[in-house]
Specification:
By secondary structure, this protein is of the alpha/beta class. The chain is 33% helix and 19% strand. It has 3 domains: 141 residues, Zinc finger, CHC2-typedomain (DNA Primase, Chain A, Alpha-Beta Complex), CATH 3.90.580; 120 residues, 3-Layer(aba) Sandwich (Dna Topoisomerase Vi A Subunit, Chain: A, domain 2), CATH 3.40.1360.10; 182 residues, P-loop containing nucleotide triphosphate hydrolases (Rossmann fold), CATH 3.40.50. The strands form 5 sheets. A 5-stranded antiparallel sheet has the order 1-2-3-4-5.
Length: 478
């Protein structure tokens, strides 16, 4: 049956359902379905069944539209259009199908037919109660091909098409019947196998004949993995001598059923891949990928590129420790007895204390070091306080951008934020808010790496800490 005006109208109304059609006679315009279209650029002729996208998506007839709409091949497009309009289309007058494949339910009742026409064109139809056919399958449940035979068989061949199934059974002949052999396929082709099919293979031996292409091989693996939960044995048989896209029917053009059986027997049983986990690795492998030497900022304490916190009760000397750390890093002097391998440029962001108090701490702590290192302090230690910027909040995008730009110019290797709980507006009792504050929209850690800042250290107050040799403040004041 050829395309009639009522078919074209029915098709386009189905595919453009929900879109506003502006009609002038048989012509209609609407927003194109193939691109983000704010101004209607798609024209369709509901009489002739042709379309054009004036924005450049293409043009053509109903089959071209369906191919593009469903991202399918010509054969599938014909079947889709026939189902939408309710009649088989695009056939020559009086043209007869090459084959009719019947799909039956477990009781042997015909659910639908799949008709194959020359040129590998397919049409589906289902019988109606009045004795005719409806060419719309709708949402009927589609059984496996030759399901009644599959249920009573011991050995099952799974192919990619109905023609392949019929050819395999024909090649086995009486031997296949004596071996209780059946052949089947899923209605909708490669990649469309459903796990609900696999229960029918419980206790059976299964042979899968994949087409010789990437899609066919992937389909075979999908079927094998699904069926393996029920079958007692599975073989995936890749037949020799087949060209690209070749299948079992191509093989049987020049080979006998006995040769096909021989190929099955020489094929090893398929086994599912052993499950693997990637969350853990063996300790030797982990150690082998680790550098032999750690690049320390403070030997044994702070690794280059690490982040950390000072945590202690209020007024326990955290700022003293932080400022002293900054000075020792800048000078390359030991810190609390721990060696600093080489001087590092440090950015000290001091936001809690008055600038004068921070300056007083730097002055007095530096006076306890060697006076010959003043030049390093000039080039390696930089300070931001409330004197330089009245407000600096890590969860404020504009202030964060300003900070990152400054760090990019300064290029420090280490940054200290003192104190962290005054650098954000988050509720410290709300884990979600604190997570957002620690990782703002433009993350510090990501941008720090681009500015050669390899570590940062913030200090926070905590209700209790483990103390060694007296409080931090006591050690600095002695």
């Amino acid at each position: 049956m050829n395309l009639e005006p009522q078919h074209a109208r029915r098709y386009f109304e189905a595919r453009l359902r929900g879109r506003r059609l502006i009609q002038r006679g048989d012509e209609a315009t609407t927003n194109c379905v193939f691109h983000d279209d704010r101004n209607p650029s798609l024209s369709v002729n509901l009489e002739k069944g042709v379309w054009t996208c004036h924005a450049g998506c293409g043009n053509g007839g109903i089959l071209e539209f369906e191919e593009k709409f469903s991202r399918c091949d010509r054969e599938t497009a014909r079947a889709n259009v026939a189902e939408i309009v309710g009649e088989p289309l695009f056939q020559g007058k009086g043209e007869q199908p090459e084959a009719v494949y019947q799909y039956q339910d477990a009781q042997g009742r015909v659910v639908f037919d799949k008709l194959r026409y020359p040129g590998k064109r397919f049409v589906q139809r289902r019988p109606t109660e009045k004795g005719g056919y409806d060419y719309k399958l709708g949402d009927i449940k589609k059984p496996l091909y030759r399901l009644p035979e599959l249920l009573v068989a011991n050995n099952i061949a799974i192919c990619e098409g109905e023609k392949d199934c019929d050819n395999v059974l024909r090649a086995f002949g009486d031997k296949g019947k004596s071996q209780h052999l059946a052949a089947t396929t899923n209605f909708d082709g490669a990649g469309k196998w459903r796990d609900e099919h696999s229960i029918f293979f419980a206790g059976k031996r299964v042979v899968i004949f994949p087409d010789q292409d990437q899609i066919g091989q992937k389909h075979a693996q999908q079927v094998a993995e699904s069926v393996s939960r029920y079958a007692v044995g599975i073989r995936i048989v890749n037949l020799p001598g087949l060209a690209e896209h070749g299948d079992v029917s191509d093989y049987l053009e020049n080979h006998s059923g006995d040769e096909l059986i021989a190929e099955i027997k020489k094929t090893p049983q398929w086994r599912p891949a052993e499950p693997t986990q990637k969350l853990f690795v063996p300790a030797p492998a982990f150690v082998s990928t680790t550098p032999e030497e750690i690049e320390w900022l403070v030997e044994g304490i702070i690794e280059r590129g690490a982040n950390g916190f000072f945590s202690a009760v209020p007024k326990d000397g955290k700022s003293w420790a932080a400022v002293d750390l900054a000075i020792c890093l800048a000078l390359g002097f030991p810190w609390l007895g721990f060696r600093i391998p080489r001087p590092a440029r440090v950015a000290l962001i001091s936001r809690e204390d008055n600038p004068s108090l921070t300056a007083w701490r730097i002055k007095h702590l530096f006076n306890g070091k060697s006076s010959t290192a003043a030049g390093l302090l000039e080039t390696n230690l930089y300070v931001n306080s409330r004197r330089e910027s009245a407000e600096l909040m890590l969860d404020n995008p504009e202030q964060m951008a300003e900070l990152l730009d400054a760090l990019k110019l300064l290029r420090p290797q280490f940054a200290i934020f003192d104190v962290f709980n005054v650098l954000h507006c988050a509720d410290e009792n709300d884990a979600q808010e604190m997570r957002a504050a620690a990782q703002p929209p433009d993350p510090i850690h990501y941008r720090i790496e681009s500015t050669e800042v390899s570590a940062k250290l913030s200090r926070v107050d905590a209700p209790s800490v483990h103390r060694r040799e007296g409080s931090t403040a006591e050690r600095y004041m002695q």
